[in-house]
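S1.2 Input.
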Amino acid sequence: MSSTPVGVNVNDAQSDGEASADAAARLKDLPLDFDDAITAAKNAVENNAPGVAGWGAFGDVQAQHMIDVQTHAHSIAENAQDGAGAAAGTDEESASEFRIPINDLQLM
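S1.3 Output.
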């Protein structure tokens, strides 16, 4: 049976949170860029494809999904960074109370 380490690598957790925040920031203009792409596609085929409709509704639905993904990325970033901070605080608190008795001496 293999053993699994227990604990949190605070630096890794903080780094993952920062990476998630960066990803969320890059998603900021994605709905606008997508809307521009839908408009360009619509304009490119508008005269050559009579009866094709639904461009606006399609774009609206997809844009909302992109906003949802951005919101989730922000939540992941906040949760990872908050978790890293809580783990660091717990480590510091535990370390400050940790004592090793050796021959009736308390080492700090």
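S1.4 Remarks. The mean pLDDT is 78.
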